[in-house]
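Possible regression after last week's pipeline update?

I re-ran a chain I had predicted before the update to compare outputs. Posting the input and the new output here so someone can diff against the archived version. Not blocking, just want to make sure nothing changed silently.
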Amino acid sequence: MKCRDVVSHPPITVTPDKTLEEAVELLANHDVGLLVVVDRDNPRRPIGVLSERDVVRAIGWKAPLTVTVREAGTFTGLIYVYADDPVEKAFEVMMKHNIRHVLVLEQNGNLLGVISIRDLAKFCKLSSG
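New output (post-update):
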C-alpha cells in the first residue's frame, strides 16, 4: 500500500500571517494535531507546519495568542514522504524523527495531505484484519 492510500484528505492548512489564536481554532474545529503552513499565493506549496507541540512551546514561552503562525511554527527541515512511497516509509520517518505527523507530497512537491500516527494505527488494524 502506498502513502497516498492512507493520507488524510484534504489537509488542514493555514497561512503564515494568521494568528496563533486562529490556528488553534482550526486545530480544535478540525480535531487535528497539525496544520500545514502554505504559501499564501500557492496553497499547494507547503512552507512549514504548526503542531500541537509548537502551540504548547509558544504558550510555555508566554507568547500572546496574537503572535503569527510564522513566529510559532516550524519552517525549516520539513519532514515528508512522497505519495507513491510505501506506507511503511511514513512509519519509519515518524519513528526516526519522533513525530506524530508527516507531510505527503506529490513528486512535483505539491501537498497531497498528511499521515498521522492515528492514520497508521487504522491502517495496521485493517491490514491485520
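Follow-up from reviewer: compared with the archived run. The chain has a mean pLDDT of 94. Marking as no regression found.
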